[in-house]
Design goal:
This protein is mainly β. Helices cover about 15% and strands about 45% of the residues. The chain has a 15-stranded mixed β-sheet that branches.
């Protein structure tokens, strides 16, 4: 299997199953829902505005844990560390047995850089590669929203419809002429538990499911989540995170060794 494919996926996404997962459990009492002042807007618009007001926020984010990647031919578990600054970068470090780093991935606004430690290569690509893998156009900001547990595309009153199923609010949105987003919000917190992007032209899917959370102030950051893709390949990656920090203590460390071969894709 092409190693760059695994590395990029570990940095940003994974799975394509249709199984139903249990409702998310919380390690602490969830934060209170922010109430909006009464307005003359429609009930749907008020609900969507409430969801936006209760979205998770961050300036700096760091987490550690494991990532379990699986596709038709490959299954691997790696230790991962995810570091992000809002609208600036995402950096992911993946380590194998004995803490040996196998790859380091840096995503900025327009570039993806990958250090393949095992083969001493520096791979440089752009977000067209992400689009090919996921069948969805995604930006740095949207990938950051994925990791902190917000919708990839913010629903608006003009392009969405709202329904309810059991304990969930279901928001269907048209996000492009070919793509729809189905967002499941937990009624008690108005925060996402599932986000499904579907390409209507070919049935390909990109799904994220959030199972457990780390509560920090009014934020509920995902600590156990699975990303599913049914596109060019069907893959799954489950992140289980057990450490979080939100204060930046040192600068970004992404240095390309001089003896690495640079490949542009």
């Amino acid at each position: 299997m092409n190693k760059i494919y695994v590395y990029v996926l570990l940095a940003v996404i994974a799975i394509a199953g249709c199984k139903t997962r249990k409702d998310a459990s919380l390690s602490k009492t969830p934060p209170a829902v922010k109430k909006l002042e009464p307005s003359v807007a429609s009930p749907q618009a008020i609900l969507l505005n409430t969801a936006a007001a209760n979205a998770n926020t961050f300036t700096f984010y760091k987490s550690r844990g494991t990532a379990n990647y699986r596709d038709a031919k490959t299954q691997i578990e790696l230790e991962v560390e995810i570091t992000m600054e809002k609208n600036s970068y995402i950096m992911l470090s993946a380590k194998a047995v004995l803490g040996i780093e196998v790859t380091r991935v840096l995503l900025t606004k327009d570039t993806i850089s990958i250090l393949d430690r095992m083969n001493r290569k520096h791979i440089v690509t752009d977000y067209r590669y992400i689009e090919k893998l996921t069948n969805t156009k995604l930006s740095l900001s949207q990938l950051q929203q994925l990791f902190i547990g917000n919708p990839l595309f913010t629903p608006s009153d003009s392009n969405s419809s709202v329904d309810s199923i059991l304990n969930y609010i279901v928001v269907n949105s048209l996000v492009s002429p070919t793509h729809t987003q189905v967002l499941y919000l937990r009624q008690s917190t108005v925060k996402p538990t599932r986000n499904l992007i579907t390409d209507k032209s070919n049935g390909r899917e990109f799904k994220t499911e959030y199972d457990e959370f780390h509560i920090h102030g009014s934020n509920m950051y995902p600590s156990d989540f699975t990303i599913n893709i049914r596109a060019e390949k069907s893959v799954e990656c489950r992140f289980t995170l057990n450490y979080f920090a939100f204060v930046k203590e040192k600068e970004l460390n992404f240095v390309v060794p001089k003896n690495y071969q640079t490949l542009r894709m």
